[in-house]
Write a structure and sequence with these properties.
Blueprint (H helix, E strand, L loop, with lengths): L5 H12 L7 H5 L2 H20 L3 H24 L5 H14 L2 H4 L7 H18 L17 H13 L8 H20 L7 H21 L4 H25 L9 H19 L1
Length: 272
C-alpha cells in the first residue's frame, strides 16, 4: 500500500502548478468555471471504468477525479475561502452527522429507514442555514444531468404519494406522450413547430426516466449501455462494408439495414 503522505505530495504538485512564479501557464489560466466541465467528465469516466469492470482503469480514473477536487481546493485556498483540509473535514462531519445509527444511538430497520433519515437530516441542515424552501423537491441541484434530475424529482414526489402504483400506467402514459409527439410532427414543418416538438419530446423523455425508476434501472447506466451497443454494432457494420470493398456511405438505407440485422444475428449467435 502507498504511504499516508501521498495526498500531501499531490497537494504540493497542484500548488506548484498554480504557483505564479514558474507554474504551468495552462493551470494558472483556469478558474472554477473552466475546470467544472473536466470535473463532470472525469466522474463519467469513473462510471465508464466501473461499467467495463476495469479495475486498473478505475484506479487511474479515480486519481483523475481526485485531482479535480484538489484543483478546486487549491483555487479556493488562493482566495482564502477554504483548503483541501476543510473539504475533508466538511465531508467527514457530514458523514458522521448523517449516520446517527452508526455514530450515535439511533436505530434503523433496513436501508429504507437510512434513506428516510438521510433526507430528514438534509432538511434540518437546510433549515439551519436559513433556507425557507420547504417543498418536497427542495435541494435537488439544477447542476445535475437532466436525466438524473428527472429521476430525483420523481422520487421525491413519490414520497408524498404522488406516483403511479406500478409500471403499467407509466407505459400507458408513454404511449400517450409518443402519440402527442406524432401529432406535432403531423401538424406542420419541423422548423415551424420546433418549440412544441421540444416540449412533447421532453415529456417523452421524462416519462422514460419514470419508467426506468419503476424498473429500478439507472437511466444513465441504461443509456450508456445502449450507446455502447449501438457503437459496437455500427463499427461491425463498417467492418463488413470494408470487407466487401466499400464503405457505409456507399450503401443505400436498405443495404445498411440489412447489415444491421446481420450484425444483430451474429451477436445472438455468439451469445448462444
Amino acid at each position: 500500500m502507498s504511504g499516508r503522505n501521498d495526498i500531501q505530495m499531490l497537494l504540493n504538485i497542484m500548488a506548484r502548478l498554480r504557483d505564479p512564479d514558474g507554474g504551468c501557464p495552462w493551470d494558472l489560466q483556469q478558474d472554477f468555471a473552466s475546470i467544472a466541465p473536466y470535473t463532470v467528465e472525469e466522474a463519467y469516466e469513473v462510471a465508464d471504468a466501473i461499467d467495463r469492470n476495469d479495475l486498473d482503469d478505475l484506479k487511474d480514473e479515480l486519481g483523475d477525479l481526485l485531482l479535480q477536487v484538489v484543483f478546486h481546493a487549491q483555487m479556493a485556498s488562493e482566495q482564502g475561502a477554504f483548503d483541501f483540509g476543510d473539504v475533508v473535514a466538511s465531508i467527514s462531519d457530514k458523514m458522521v452527522r448523517r449516520h446517527p445509527h452508526i455514530f450515535a444511538d439511533d436505530r434503523v430497520d433496513g436501508a429504507g429507514d437510512v434513506s428516510a433519515n438521510w433526507e430528514q437530516i438534509k432538511r434540518a441542515e437546510r433549515a439551519a442555514r436559513g433556507e425557507t424552501d420547504d417543498s418536497a423537491l427542495a435541494g435537488i441541484s439544477r447542476g445535475l444531468p437532466e436525466w438524473q434530475r428527472a429521476t430525483k424529482l420523481q422520487s421525491r414526489a413519490a414520497r408524498t404519494g404522488f406516483d403511479w402504483p406500478d409500471p403499467v400506467p407509466v407505459l400507458d402514459k408513454l404511449r400517450e406522450e409518443v402519440d402527442e409527439v406524432q401529432a406535432e410532427f403531423a401538424a406542420g414543418p419541423v422548423d415551424a413547430n420546433q418549440a412544441r416538438l421540444q416540449e412533447e419530446i421532453g415529456d417523452v423523455l421524462f416519462v422514460c426516466a419514470n419508467l426506468a425508476r419503476h424498473a429500478r434501472v439507472d437511466v444513465g447506466t441504461a443509456l450508456r449501455q445502449a450507446n455502447l451497443k449501438f457503437e459496437r454494432r455500427f463499427r461491425a457494420m463498417e467492418a463488413h462494408a470494408r470487407a466487401r470493398g466499400g464503405a457505409m456511405q456507399d450503401l443505400d438505407l436498405a443495404q445498411q439495414e440489412a447489415l444491421w440485422r446481420q450484425v444483430k444475428d451474429e451477436e445472438k449467435g455468439a451469445a448462444r
